[in-house]
Write a structure and sequence with these properties.
The complex is a heterodimer of chains A (377) and B (169). With 377 residues, chain A is of the alpha+beta class. Helix content of chain A is 29%, strand content 30%. Chain B has two domains: 5-91; 97-168, no CATH class. Classes of the chains: A alpha+beta (377), B mainly alpha (169).
Chain lengths: 377, 169
């Protein structure tokens, strides 16, 4: 997991030292031979020693984070503590580039090994569950003769990125204003059926506090089934995951679902792709995990040629497949758009056309394989 | 403790000044070195940022001076000049001190290998081949044995690193 790159400066230095030696030899001059030889010996021994010491230091270096989980809202930034510790008592300065999912932007940082805790800023740009799986460190010899690169694994940091809370910014109520991005036939809250004993698996927002205080026991509202809350049919093809101008279509879809969950504790989401359909019940906290499962399913099914990973090729073979899926993203969309038949099956599964919202689905005749954005209905 | 680049350069410059004054009685080229050294000291006092370039210029001049001195002084002069280069690079933190400390052990290892090599019969064979070529045989053998011993030491170190890499992984 260590890669060494000699620079041109090293070659020039050795040419100079050898040149002095051979000029001395050809001119039969003792000084030329002795001086060139001494410099050659000293610098060769130094370069080998530096290489050996730094390699041993890096092999015993651990990458540690101050926390293993970060929660963010998309578009916001946060800071996380980071430390590089090594059993070897040396303190070289290295350049660290964290290996993480493309949902998060993290810059390269100069950190000292065994130098205490440093702070790294994370800026989130997409909704989902991101992970930091390790880092690539680059250590340069002070005279720039050699550069050593290594990949350090860590236990990882999970970054949960939620959609924005748009309720206040949009100033809309009722259906939450998702009609701009989804086809809505009808949608309202489910009818109140009864008050029943609180199910601890349900979110706390369904508790009817007035009744609970009156009878001194937690009671929850039981509403009509999800037919009254909107049902979403979401496109989970590769096109939804390909970024355009820094934005992904799936993020808009997830924002719509997130906004609808102000009125409903949970909504039904039907995920559709080419010959693929899956029904999920989603609450607000599960939105990032929904993105994660969609992304890993799509990435797991594409070939390596279509994947982009921000890791140098030399280190790819040292990354486990599971970690690779977490940090890879799709280069271009594939031929996996849901067909009209897939959408009809999804509608049949829902069972009603009332309150159904189609997200990211192209209803034009035929399927567009170019991935060009069409009206999102 | 880190000295400023200016102080480091001045210290080395004074050492070179003393060396050039001593060498001046054996070589006229030392006066040129003296002149350039003094000019460099004045320049670095006004522009400390140029210390690296002035150092390279003075080292080049002293190398040229070394080619003009008598053979009896070459070994001592070479050692003093090489030592001044290393000390300057250490003081300006252009060399890692820990690596230089370890390199002394490597140099000793190379010396032991060189001593063993110089006693092998192949060296005698090489000497007889070189004798007729016009090159100085003793100098050639010194160069050959040291280069070869460094090569062997390098192979040992690289193998050690590969073994450590695989063992720890």
């Amino acid at each position: 997991m260590i890669r060494i790159t000699p620079s041109d400066r090293l070659l020039v230095m050795y040419l100079v030292f050898s040149g002095i030696t051979y000029i001395g030899l050809l001119m039969n001059n003792q000084f030329g031979v002795y001086f060139g030889l001494i410099l050659f010996i000293v610098f060769t021994a130094y370069v080998l020693s530096w290489y050996l010491l730094m390699t041993i230091t890096i092999l015993h270096t651990q990458l540690l984070f101050s926390q293993d989980r970060v929660e963010l809202v998309v578009g916001e930034s946060s800071a996380i503590g980071i430390r590089l510790t090594s059993k070897i008592p040396l303190h070289p300065i290295i350049r660290l580039t964290l290996v993480c999912s493309p949902h998060v932007l993290i810059g390269t940082q100069r950190i000292r090994i065994n130098g205490g805790e440093d702070i790294i800023r994370l800026v989130s740009r997409w909704v989902g569950v991101a992970r930091i799986i390790g880092g690539i460190i680059a250590l340069e010899e002070p005279l720039s003769l050699l550069m050593i690169q290594a990949m350090l694994h860590s236990n990882g940091v999970s970054i949960i990125i939620r959609p924005r809370s748009t309720r206040e910014t949009r100033g809309e109520s009722g259906t939450g204003g998702y009609t701009e991005l989804g086809v809505s036939i009808e949608g309202r809250l489910g009818d109140l059926r009864s008050l029943i004993e609180y199910d601890y698996e349900k979110p706390a927002s369904v508790i009817h506090w007035l009744t609970s205080a009156r009878i001194n026991e937690l009671m929850m509202i039981s509403r009509g089934d999800y037919g009254s809350c909107p049902t979403f049919i979401m496109n989970t093809s590769s096109r939804a995951l390909v970024p355009r101008n820094g934005e992904r279509p799936i993020d808009e879809s997830l924002q719509v679902i997130y906004d609808s969950l102000y009125q409903c504790a949970e909504v039904k989401v039907v995920l559709v792709g080419r010959n693929y359909m899956e029904e999920r019940v989603v609450s607000r906290g599960m939105i990032p995990f929904l993105e994660y499962s969609v992304r890993t399913r799509v990435i797991g099914s594409v070939g390596a040629n279509n994947l982009v990973v921000n890791i140098p090729n030399y280190f790819l073979r040292y990354v486990e497949h599971g970690d690779l899926l977490d940090v890879a993203y799709i280069r271009s969309s594939l031929d996996d758009e849901p067909t009209i038949e897939d959408i009809k099956k999804a509608m049949n599964l829902v069972g009603t056309r009332n309150g159904v919202v189609l997200l990211g689905i192209n209803l034009s005749p035929g399927v567009d394989n170019t991935g060009e954005p069409h009206e999102t209905e | 403790m880190r000295l400023s680049n200016y102080v480091s350069y001045i210290m080395i410059s004074i050492a070179w000044l003393l060396l050039e004054l001593f060498i001046a009685q054996y070589s006229d080229a030392a006066f040129l070195g003296l002149l350039i050294n003094v000019a460099s000291t004045v320049t670095v006092s006004y522009r400390p940022a140029y210390h690296k370039y002035l150092f390279i210029v003075n080292t080049a001049v002293l190398t040229y001076v070394g080619f003009t001195i008598p053979n009896s002084l070459t070994l001592a002069y070479s050692i003093i000049l090489a030592t001044s280069v290393v000390i300057y690079l250490l003081l300006t933190e252009m060399l890692e001190a820990s690596a230089i400390a370890l390199s002394l052990f490597l140099i000793y290892l190379s010396y032991v290998i060189e001593r063993l090599l110089s006693k092998t019969p192949i060296i005698n064979l090489l000497s007889s081949l070189v004798k007729d070529s016009g090159l100085n045989t003793s100098l050639f053998i010194i160069v050959f044995t040291w280069y070869f011993s460094l090569f062997i030491a390098s192979v040992i170190i690289v193998l050690l690193i590969i073994i450590l890499d695989k063992k720890i992984l």
